[in-house]
Specification:
CATH architecture: 2-Layer Sandwich
Order of helices and strands: EHEEEEEHHEE
CATH class: Alpha Beta
Largest sheet: 4 strands, mixed
Radius of gyration: 18 Å
CATH topology: Zincin-like
Helix content: 25-40%
Structural class: alpha/beta
Strand order of the largest sheet: 1-2-4-3
Strand content: 15-25%
Length: 147
């Protein structure tokens, strides 16, 4: 009796150089969740300090393109007035946005199912935080927060 094992195939999407580190998380998610719809393109963009920041990521279901912000705008006190400044997002924040936008390929609207799917996808990434109890010596699984 012959037994054929299904081989894991990963088709690499086109990824912006500033987000090249995301590929290993995408591979891990595809391996653990073979049914996810893979993006064809992952782009990055940086908010300009002059404009108000409204979104951290977008997805186009037709072209299967995900665009992720790499910076956020914060207000900094200057000598005379408040100024806007672009600050880099942490990898955890980018991965939370990425999981959210990737879940939109399966669930278009912001529903309970989309939220649960993005949370489970973020859990497959295996992101760890420093343990608050043992002064950062240990690692605990990160919690998905959708703001």
């Amino acid at each position: 009796m012959l037994c054929f094992k299904k081989k894991f195939v990963f088709h690499k999407p086109t990824i912006s150089p500033s987000l090249a580190w995301i590929e290993r998380y995408l591979r891990k998610a595809k391996k653990k969740m073979p049914g996810i719809t893979m993006p064809l393109r992952i782009r990055s963009w940086k908010h300009t300090p002059r404009r108000e920041q409204r979104v951290w990521g977008t997805c186009d279901q037709g072209t299967r393109t995900i665009t992720l912000a790499t910076h956020k705008i914060i207000m900094v006190r200057g000598k005379k007035r408040m100024k806007r400044k672009a600050v880099a997002l942490s990898h955890k924040e980018i991965l939370q946005t990425f999981a959210h936008e990737l879940a939109h390929f399966r669930y278009g609207d912001h529903t309970y199912e989309q939220e649960c799917y993005s949370r489970s996808m973020f859990d497959t990434f295996g992101v760890k935080d420093k343990c608050p109890v043992c002064a950062g010596r240990g690692r605990i699984p990160s919690v998905y927060i959708n703001e």
